[in-house]
Amino acid sequence: MLKRLVFSVFIAFFSTFLCFVLLYFSKGSVAYANKVNSQSKELVQRIEANLGLDKPLLEQYQIWFFKALKGGLGVSFLSGESVLKLIKERMANTLILSLSALVLLFLLSVFLALLGHYYKESFIDKLITFLAFNFFALPPFVLALFFVLIFGIFWQVLPITGTSDIGFEDDFLNRLEHLILPVLVLVLSHLALFLRIARNCINETFSQIFVQNLYARALREKDIYFLVLRYSLSPIIAYFGGSALSFMMGTYVVESVFAYEGLGSLLFESILFKDFPMALALIFFSVLLAAFFTFLSDVFAWILNPRLKRLKFV
């Protein structure tokens, strides 16, 4: 447990260093966010000097690193507000979106995997596979733009921007309507991979000798499916936890397309204008959050799998 925690913190800081190096050598400047004329090099250099951006790469990262160790993530170059305050304001929206999509994706993957096994090699099984891999073939931002075009512009049945309408911030149903399209895009763009994992785990469990013995004892098929599902959930949940970071990055992309007020828009804006404190803090929190979800999935897998319960969880 302690080793995992230390390793996760190390990976988080290492990720921030890689992000810092990429931003340092990328084009652009935070000075341009204030609509400074790109030809006014002296003014740009003066702004960068005031922010400490004229210092060498390692010195800049060292300053941020030691501040982060003390719990100070600094202020955003763009807004001048505390980085921690801005993250707190938007983290709830991102967590609601990502967790809603992840839970729905998990339930849908398991259900379709069981349905595909029940109707194995049938038209239903082939249709599920065909649709899932066709959605997977489209990048998330392309699928999001397609849904915006269909549901928001042509049919005009669902909202396509923001987390809620103006004046309806506390309206649960209004916020739920704004969640539908982003959640749908996240689920459909990841469904093929998760469905494949779920199907492989379930098919492998069905091929076990103890399952064949259950059929030989004329046990009810509903009970057999329940036992198979219980034994298959452990590796499925472990895979979901291991994919937390990539799923979170996909969430950030979808948020930017739908102008969803989460961490995604903050991250892309900070990268675009080289807002180092905000970008590094978001990368750091994203890696730690993904590590937490991975650990949580391991705990659930240990609880659900009777064979793992015999081992000491460390």
Q: What is the compact description of this entry?
A:
This protein has 314 residues and is mostly helical. The chain has helices spanning 2-25, 41-50, 57-69, 83-118, 123-137, 140-154, 172-206, 209-216, 221-242, 244-257, 263-272, 276-304, 306-309.
Secondary structure tally: strands: 0
N→C terminal distance: 5 Å
Q: Mean pLDDT score, rounded?
A: 79
Query: Mind telling me which CATH architecture of the largest domain this is?
Result: Orthogonal Bundle
Tell me what portion of residues adopts beta-strand conformation. under 5%
CATH superfamily of the largest domain: MetI-like
> Could you say what the CATH topology of the largest domain is called?
MetI-like fold
Number of helices: 13
In the CATH scheme, the class of the largest domain would be Mainly Alpha
Give the topology string: H per helix, E per strand: HHHHHHHHHHHHH
Major sheet summary line: none
Content-based structural category: mainly alpha
Integer-rounded radius of gyration: 23 Å
Summed up, the domain count is 2
Helical percentage: over 70%
| Bulk shape | globular
Unreliable spans are none
Keywords: Cell membrane, Membrane, Transmembrane, Transmembrane helix, Transport
Family: Belongs to the binding-protein-dependent transport system permease family.
Organism: Campylobacter jejuni
GO cellular component, one term: plasma membrane
